Amino acid sequence: MQSKKTILSCTEEVRVRFNETDPLGIVWHGHYIVYFEDGREAFGRQHGLTYLDIQKSGYVTPIVKSTCEHFLPLKYGETFKIVTTFVNAISAKLIYQYELFNENNQLVCSGETIQVFLDSDNNLCLYNPEFFQTWKDKMGLP
Fold first, then answer.
1. Can you tell me which family this protein belongs to (predicted)?
2. What is the pTM of this model?
3. What is the pLDDT of residue 142?
């Protein structure tokens, strides 16, 4: 559990594109996972933990679990916010939680992804890679 002082999050604003909608004009459910990725990338840029940083350190972080709950639809042309929050874990993994809010600040969708670290030989890392532990220390995360 992380304290209020060490919560790291990022908010990104996105506009629904035409190609993301179904014939009813609402966002197709599969695109919400892509929105989660938009949130992760924005988080990485803001907090210095991008996929490129991870790759340069010799690791990849495949997703091993994702959840997504839908509450309200998003429609073509609407803007919405993706709030991405890093969940600190002792184990060697990246856990992100997501909340998407529409223009009326109503919760549209929430979810979570879990990623693990694999080294250059595709071995699962049981301990935090050195670069990741350095990042956590810099961010004030235990």
1. Belongs to the 4-hydroxybenzoyl-CoA thioesterase family.
2. 0.93
3. 84
